[in-house]
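ESCALATION

Customer reports they have been waiting on this structure for their group meeting. Please prioritize. Original submission:
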Amino acid sequence: MGIFSQLLLALSGSLLLSTTANAGSSLLLTTPRGATIEIIEDKPSGDGPFPAVILGSGSNYDARQPLQEQVARQLAEAGLATIRFNWAYHVQDRENGKPSLDRQPEIEDMQTAIAYAKQQSWVDNQRIAVAGKSLGSIIGWRVFQADPELKAAILLTPVCRTPPGLAQQYVNAADETRPSLWLLGNADPVCVTSDLYSYLGTKLSPARIAVVDGNHALAHEGQPADPGNLALAAKIAAQFAVSAIRQEVNQIYTGK
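Update from on-call: job pushed to the front of the queue and completed.
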């Protein structure tokens, strides 16, 4: 039995709680190892099925932070659904929770969110992409590499200079033939654009690099992120998702 078959079976009894939040439905799911993740569903108007993006957070950046909300909003305007989620360690301990050293629990968290998405009638389960910020980009890339059915990867503020380094965090990125977007700030100390260009440019690949203003938080040092800058980053991500997933959507993307 494959990993996603196992996850789908585990999910059959995993729904713990359903509430309504301003940004969409908030649900708690149990992973196959028995941990709990929180997901937030954001859908365009209509019944679907919609292409979907599974969006993971940074290590200390939860699913309700402004960038995550902006990305979900822009995707919905483009006719795509989003399932953004909080890692199990964050759900267990919001203040002090830490990711695992080997990343396996976080990989399972994202795979659980994907398996859940594939069960939903409003999701086109043949048109799913993964996305993530910082830690979420690392996990998203590992899940993307392991699942050939995923259409694209959106890597927000990737981690290039923190050990074990770019080539180890994003293995075989230069060889990947599916589309990917790598979006970062022009003053991000965690990922310098020249490093990224050097790594991804070693071979011909469909990877795209987008650079906006700001540091790893897409902000100027000592200041909160500018909403306009976050909106620009989210718009770039949405435009990429529409082109990469290559699906007619229920709403025409207006660029708003």
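Sent to customer with the following note: The two ends are 44 Å apart (CA to CA).
Escalation resolved.
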